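Before the break, one more example. Copy the sequence into your notebook; we will annotate it together after we see the structure.
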Amino acid sequence: MNKFALVLAAGKGTRMKTILPKCAFPILKKPMIEYIVESLEASTIDETCVVVGHQRKVIEDILDGRVAFAYQEKQLGTGHAAMAAEGVLGDKEGTTLILLGDMPLIDETTIENILSTHEKLGNDLTVVTTSYKDPRGYGRIIRDKYGKIESIIEDKECTEEQKNIQEVNTGIYAVDNHYLFQTLKHIQKSAYRNEYYLTDIVHLMRHEYTVGTYTIRDNSIVMGVNDLYAISIAEKVLRDSINREFMINGVSMINPETITIGHNVCIEENVTIYPNTTITGESTIAEGAQIGPNTEIHNGVIHKDVSVKHSLVYDSVVHERTTVGPFAHLRSNANIGKENRIGNFVEVKKSSTGAHTKASHLAYIGDTTTGDNVNFGCGSITVNYDGKEKHETHIGDDVFIGCNTNLVAPISVGDSVFIAAGSTVTENVPSGALAIARNKQINKEDYARNLIKPKGKTVETIEDAKDPKTS
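Here is what the structure looks like once it is written out:
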């Protein structure tokens, strides 16, 4: 039997009070809708349809090529959103799993358990429920005297007695696809909110079809995110779960409550992560690496025995036995070779370095290809921007670049070159050369005497200041 997923992600999310649509808001630097779609992709779901509406292009750009889209022009409730998917799923035979787009902690195992239970019980509709000690804000599950589900009552429409019910609707349903779209046509607008409630399919189907429930014990898995405080709760749940899994598998974390690891990060065993470190995106950390403290890595590839501390690594690669930091910044596809030293206040942008290269402090390396055994002296800069365009610098092997050197791109430096400190190099340097590019020093005797006045004095010259006769 075919299995489909219908994700409702058209709402604005007014309680979030943000520019982004709610389902696009990031959790650990990844849009929450992407967590749901990744779990569906890992499951036995054959096809996913996402209903979009408010700022639809934002969601469409995030999920481009991965799902089908349906459009809800006006946000008239969850039932109306499901109706919008008829053009995509309406003629298909199978089971449809309906999910809300603000439920980022739903996982592959839970999805499979819901679908399996739905099939084993022979249900036409399975409502997924959970329980809260404080169920405010959730639709309550109403059961008959035999314990079978009768209906779902929205929180604002509950009687005082019904508000005490702790079993609530999660907003997740498994339903026969044909019966779903047949039933949606009979939903009426709620008199209370002038919206079409998807929850109405329960009382519409219960007499003619087999309707059951599946209860999730851990309610954090199905928590909905409606405001920025809920974002922080979801992040904490996700962070604790991810950190626990890594630590069980041999990753040492010092003060793990201060460490944030993203959902798609891969870390090998025998890695140590120090406090206040964030690793997100498609990052990978190889064994023996030491990361942190106070370090951020996003889409970074860190090879064996690398040390990165007090530094930023974005979209970059660091090869074996290299040290980065403190206070270094690697970005925009920097590719740092083996056994390098990228030290204090060094920035590397869109550049590659060979083995045994050092930039120990206060250097900028941009749009540069560097060979092996190159030394960047303190204050060295590859001058890559002319105000309109970026230009490249090429540096060979065994090059010594003295302190406070400017290499004005486009420029090439050959192998075994020595560049004198304080040079501004504007022409290519051939292999084996010594490059000195300084203005000739001129000393003008006694010239400063007429320029410098001692602090707090009104005298004309330093000599006057020393002569008591002029006091």
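The longest strand covers residues 167-176. The CA atoms of residues 122 and 261 lie 40 Å apart. Try to locate both features in your own notes.
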